[in-house]
Automatic annotation (TrEMBL):
Residue intervals of the M23ase beta-sheet core domain: 189-283
PANTHER family: M23 FAMILY METALLOPEPTIDASE (PTHR21666:SF285), PEPTIDASE-RELATED (PTHR21666)
Record's protein name: Peptidase M23B
One function term, GO molecular function aspect: metalloendopeptidase activity
Family matches, as Pfam families: Peptidase_M23, Peptidase_M23_N
Transmembrane annotation, as ranges: none
Residues of the Peptidase family M23 N-terminal domain: 34-96
Alphabetical list of InterPro entries matching this protein: Cell_wall_metabolism_enzyme, Dup_hybrid_motif, M23ase_b-sheet_dom, Peptidase_M23_N
CDD domains the record matches: M23_peptidase (cd12797)
């Protein structure tokens, strides 16, 4: 029987502090932090053609973002929060073509301790009705298809850098990786960055992107998905207004909507998630501290 308890996607207003490893200042983006929920940067060497890289996820070979030029290529690998510390690898075709001749490229996933937060809330905040659960399941399947998006360049050209800007100014009110325990029941870790901002605050595209999905979802409320290219995506949600539509190309800093409190939330704020090779990773690795 399907479990009728679902993860609470809303976020509170308590500040969560990231614990564990901290990435050093970086001249390249995203910063390397090869831990669960982080990013590994793997040198692929020089070559006239961009190498093709894949990461094994279950029964799938998922494409990995490769940046650089003929003088030096780098694989930028998203690491799942659920990934166990220890040895890992991707596969690489150095000639830039899919098919035979791939080689494994190993790396090591380190450890990181994320904080926990224990909360007591009304049961209705964590127990879904059959109707709400069915809606959530439909929306989760749809968003899985969105997350699988992989395009070479979303707007016909590459962004000059993968350094992003925060979609709104303001303090973080919820950190990536925080695991909340509601009424004694553990929920999935927080998969993005919450930024405190008032309803109506303008939201900007964090990087050159194409809009690939918009919608009103049960947990996330009004949501916009952005494709930055090669499996690098952003999601912003709980919006009070969506001012773009699918297919729009946005420059870094271009307005796309307004902060709100739609979906399952306790108050207005912006939730921002970053996806890399179908994996939610810490947005803080893409922006200056």
């Amino acid at each position: 029987m399907m479990n009728r308890r679902a993860a609470l996607a809303g976020t509170g207003s308590l500040l969560a502090l990231d614990l564990g490893a901290t990435p050093p200042p970086a001249a390249v983006w995203p910063q390397a932090l090869p831990v669960p929920g982080g990013v590994a940067r793997l040198a692929l060497g020089a070559g006239a053609a961009r190498p093709v890289a894949h990461q094994r996820q279950g029964h799938l070979d998922v494409p990995v973002l490769v940046q650089g030029d003929a003088s030096a290529w780098t694989a930028v690998v998203g690491i799942a929060l659920a990934a166990p510390p220890g040895p890992a690898c991707i596969s690489v075709q150095a000639d830039g073509a899919d098919g035979a001749g791939s080689r494994p490229l190993p790396y090591t996933i380190g450890t990181k301790q994320y904080p926990q937060q224990h909360l007591t809330v009304p049961p209705r905040m964590v127990d879904l009705s059959p109707e709400d659960l069915a809606r959530h399941q439909r929306e989760r399947a749809h968003q899985a298809l969105v997350i699988a998006t992989f395009t070479e360049q979303p707007a016909g050209r590459a962004a000059p850098s993968l350094r992003m800007q925060a979609p709104v100014p303001g303090p973080r009110s919820g950190s990536f990786g925080l695991r909340r325990v509601f009424n004694g029941q553990a929920r999935s870790p927080h998969s993005g960055m919450d930024i405190a901002a008032a309803t109506g605050t303008s939201i900007a595209a964090p990087l050159l992107a194409r809009v690939i999905d918009t919608g009103d979802y049960f947990f996330n409320g009004n949501t916009v998905w952005l494709d930055h290219g090669q499996g690098l995506l952003s999601m912003v949600c709980h919006l009070s207004a969506i001012d773009v539509q699918r297919g729009d190309v946005l420059q870094t800093g271009q307005h796309l909507g307004a902060v709100g409190a739609t979906g399952r939330v306790t108050g207005p704020h912006l939730h921002w998630s970053v996806v890399l090779n179908r994996t939610m990773v810490d947005p803080a690795l893409f922006v200056p501290a």
